[in-house]
User: Fold these one by one.
Assistant:
Number 1:
Amino acid sequence: MKSAKRPSCLRSLFLVAGLVIREIAWTRRTLVAVLLLMVPSALALVIRSEAPPGTVDTYIQSIFPTLFVFISALIMLFFAGSIARDSMDDRTMTFLVTRPLGRVRIVLGFWLGTVVFATPLLWACGLGTMAVASAGLDGWAGFPNPEAAAEARWRIMLAGLAIAMLSGAYYTWMSLKLKHPTVLGVLSILAVDGALGSVQANARFAAPTSSFESLLSPIFQTRGTLISESDLDLTLTQGGALQLILIELVVMLILLAKSAQKHDYISSAATEGS
Amino acid sequence: MSEESIISAVGLSRSYGRVMGLTDLTVDIPTGVIGLLGPNGAGKSTLLRLMTGMIKPSLGTIRVLGQDPLSSPDLFRSMGFVSEDDALYESMTPHEMVSFLGRASGLSKSDAREAAHESIQKVSLEAVTNRRMRGFSKGMRQRVRIAAALVHEPRLLLLDEPMTGLDPVARRDIVSLIERLAAEGVSVVFSSHILHEVEAVANHVVMLHRGLLLAHGSIQHIRDCLSDYAFTLEIRMDRPRELAARLAREAYVTSLVFEGEDGIRVGTSSSKQLVTALPTVLLEIGAPVREIACPGENLEALFGRLLK
């Protein structure tokens, strides 16, 4: 008999994450996601070719940041909201749950896999859009100097990573708890991120997208800076936003781990009568 | 849990909303080849899923190889499971999938590759080991799942309806595989609603019906529990008419049908009385007996009687 011992925590996470990446890459959903991620770049291209000079700068500065945050959240819903649920529905989850990996590691592996897969795509979306907007121009569109452009690029990457990690955890958790996580996720994006995140009060920080947008301001104009007509500061400092995101992430990962231990790993509808 | 039990359930129940999948099951399952038998909806798959921790009990406890499947990931180093579902990682080849699951079972990368190769050989899939699994027949898909369950050389293999939907050749291959594994000392628990399959290979049977334990034990033990019931005997002998004349007087004999010159079919309302009386009667007649058979006396008949 070959020596088999329980895989270490890291090895378990990487094995499951690797599997998730491979499985996501083979879904049609990924093609749809890539098309969706090309929308900001396509808009930049259209604006550059059709609108008066300078319009693309306004687009990059004021519209693109919120568009990027919402499209990124939607992409995470596409991936994280479905991969665990799909594997429970198509029963491939059985293969993992009946190995000595442990449930918490499996679920965290799902989360890690979606983060690793989606983050480069989100970065490509953000940086690609800026590149399309500035290609052939002297420097980055909408930014006065190379340092500001570099900071904008860095902030896009930070926001992309934060969205992938936090939204990934949130939607993975939803996919464990709910039968139709995608539908409810869209509703959540519309109601919480869309409506609540746009109110002119600090309540807007209950929407995770408000924190993501704070990572992009003040170098980008976001909903917080655009809608503020009062003395209220509707953006967080970058440090404050990062702190809030980290706290929310830890809470989500704890919830995820707790759900992993409690949950049936097969969809209940399919088990009835067996 | 007794020393020789591999699975022990106490007051085990599982409900799906208002439907009871399994009700108050208390059973010790010994080592060997064990058949879980029952019609669709009997609770076989529910019991197997509880054994693997795929679902949680609503009430009661279950221990497999002395461990709780819900909280002991280590258990899965010694256990393999093949579900009834047609699931596979379609984007992989059999070797990739089995090798991956070998690594997930704790084997090193090189050991997992080697073990995958051996495991795929055991299920005779070498010819397609590097082909994508899209388009595989049901039998091939089932073999891949079995290879994946065997890759880490488990002590206990659970198979949920392993022969459903397979052609006769594939069924025979699975029966042979179960027999080979049993000979190697692997305990196999498999579910089926096809009774002769269980009878052919299992040495212990757990019979379920509508989530309730109907009976469990060796097939012989279950037969012994049913000491008296109606059945038919076929006897090939010289002078069957003399036997008919003697048996016609007995109240427990319900029918006597001659079959050719040397055959008689004896129907009885009391198996116990007929089986007790028959040797004496045959000795008194003194006619050579060539064969005594119970044509309907298989596990199916047994199951029917238990249900009554």
Note: The interface with chain B takes residues 1-7, 12, 15-16, 19, 22-23, 26, 90-92, 94-103, 262, 264-266, 268, 271-274 of chain A (CB under 8 Å).
Number 2:
Amino acid sequence: MKMDFDLTANIEGDVLVLKTEGYINNDGGEKIAFEFETHFTNGISKVLLDIENSKVVNSIGISYLIEIIEKLNEKNGTLYFCNMDAAIEKTFNIMGLFQFAKKVDSVGEIKE
Amino acid sequence: MDKRIKLEIKLPLVKDIELVAIEGLELMGRHLQISDEKIGEARILVTEGVINAIEHSENKSPFVDVHFIMNINALIIIITDYGKGFDPAIIENPEIGKKINSDYKRGWGLKLMKEMSDDFQIDSNEDGTKITITKNLR
């Protein structure tokens, strides 16, 4: 299992797609938030986080995702998740993330 | 026959050391052919438990103890730190609605451990904190 954190960012239509690899801990969450911020200041309001290759997350890393949700909410934007491990999806459910974020199967569901 | 396996680890207070505990957990799970779904949930429990223990240690002790006892039916996780302890009764239950627009977005560990587990016990005093988590694996 890969634990070093990597992040790739692509714009697909009007959606910022962030694909993670490795442990979403404090450092991983910070990197996601930093990358998001760069695009958010340029007007992006739809963000898809593909976490297929992140099997371990912790609540400190997730706290950065809550920060992203908060910023997107202020601009009527949305954070989407795809390819979640079942336990991670359960974690997000317990935390109530899907009250403010959405689960999708692919970027095609979001694009205008 | 009820095949029970155990692992005891003394973890130093090192960044991301919870990953060492997770490796052990996954090896035990594979050995007993536990489902990926249950091991995934146990991974969350261990991650949050060890992170909490390290934070509560506050450098009073250079390590935390982690014990796993697993059979095909259940996993018991015991995590002990030797910090100053805390009163779990005064810990506020986090709510996403309150965390949005709040400066403090953390504080989810206990909630996750309580809700992801089948039994969760805390024993805390001025000499440290022991959490005992039971996770059914069937």
Note: Chain B has a mean pLDDT of 94.
